[in-house]
Amino acid sequence: MNYTHLTREERYQIYALKKAGHTQSEIATVIDRSVSTISRELSRNRGTRGYRPKQVHNKAVERKAINVRAIDDATWQFAQEKLMLQ
């Protein structure tokens, strides 16, 4: 079972499989994800025009960029100094 974030390709697979009439359980099996992951993905990202993988993925990338923790200069300098000692 894969526990990382869904990829763009997986989102397009979910879209195609759902459009072809597959159940969430079948989709989960095909892309090797849990049924709950597929369920959450579809319920959280369903808009007025349905599930749209391109927009969903772009929003996920934006959220990830916002939540990235930056290393401050003092910490970076400390790490570089320790690496030089080795």
Automatic annotation (TrEMBL):
Residues 3-45 form the Transposase IS30-like HTH domain. GO terms for molecular function: transposase activity. GO terms for biological process: transposition. It comes from the Bacteria. GO terms for cellular component: cytosol. PANTHER family: TRANSPOSASE, TRANSPOSASE INSI FOR INSERTION SEQUENCE ELEMENT IS30A-RELATED. This is Helix-turn-helix domain-containing protein. The lineage of its organism: Bacteria, Pseudomonadati, Pseudomonadota, Betaproteobacteria, Nitrosomonadales.
